[in-house]
Fold this sequence. Notes:
By secondary structure, the chain is α/β, with parallel strands linked by helices. The chain has two domains: 132 residues, Periplasmic binding protein-like II (D-Maltodextrin-Binding Protein, domain 2), CATH 3.40.190; 87 residues, Periplasmic binding protein-like II (D-Maltodextrin-Binding Protein, domain 2, 3-Layer(aba) Sandwich), CATH 3.40.190. It is built from ten helices and eleven strands. The strands form two sheets. A six-stranded mixed sheet has the order 2-3-1-4-11-5. The protein has a five-stranded mixed sheet with strand order 8-7-9-6-10. Strand 2 and strand 3 form a beta hairpin. The mean pLDDT is 95. The chain binds phosphoribosyl ATP and magnesium ion. Phosphoribosyl ATP binds next to helix 2, helix 4, strand 9 and helix 8.
Amino acid sequence: xxxxxxxxxxxxxxxxxxxxxxxxxxxxxxxxxxxxxxxxxxxxxxxxxxxxxxxxxxxxxxxxxxxxxxxxxxxxxxxxxxxxxxxxxxxxxxxxxxxxxxxxxxxxxxxxxxxxxxxxxxxxxxxxxxxxxxxxxxxxxxxxxxxxxxxxxxxxxxxxxxxxxxxxxxxxxxxxxxxxxxxxxxxxxxxxxxxxxxxxxxxxxxxxxxxxxxxxxxxxxxxxx
Length: 225
Ligand code: PRT
Ligand code: MG
């Protein structure tokens, strides 16, 4: 058996999550669930992290790749922001728990002083820069507002400052990033927090293996509520 086969034939539970704020906020929940990673994803180059429990391992992926790993069953469970799940569409995913971590809001923001309501009232066509193309398109379609969507992969705040776009759609928590870039939030699209997601097929066909982990997370949430 080669190393790849050995890894893909793992018969414990695989949890996919991203490093950074999702891992930082999930670590205490994992601990309350009795799961302690044996390496720190910030300093380790390992992408598969063993835990104190031989039947549980973590895989470290990009935040926006978490739903994909779980959808295709490469991970049984994932932790992802609602922003990422809305953009992915949620196919193949069961979403049993709101973990209430990594909270923020998905907002429309404009340069300070830009008359957003006026522009919409006049039926102006807005240029909107965002990494949330699907969610943004849906939001403005529901409002009946015509937009030209400009897909970016980061630093949305720069787009209005350089004339790339009129408005942006981005996550806001403290509001400091908007303020530092002379932007202001004008509309909330969604309240965001991280969710625990489960591969739908694994949940139906292999619940005895998965449910104890989901229940341990749930119990940890109740303890802290
Ligand atoms: O970095 P990578 O491209 O791999 O992915 P990512 O940027 O999506 O990952 P990461 O780790 O930055 O964010 C993971 C998840 O954390 C997101 O999907 C959200 O669900 C959640 N989250 C919560 C946030 C924030 N709060 C947040 N404030 N993600 C990003 N931000 C950014 C925001 O985009 C903006 O640039 O922080 C800035 C605003 O913060 P304030 O405090 O200045 O308002
Ligand atoms: Mg990031």
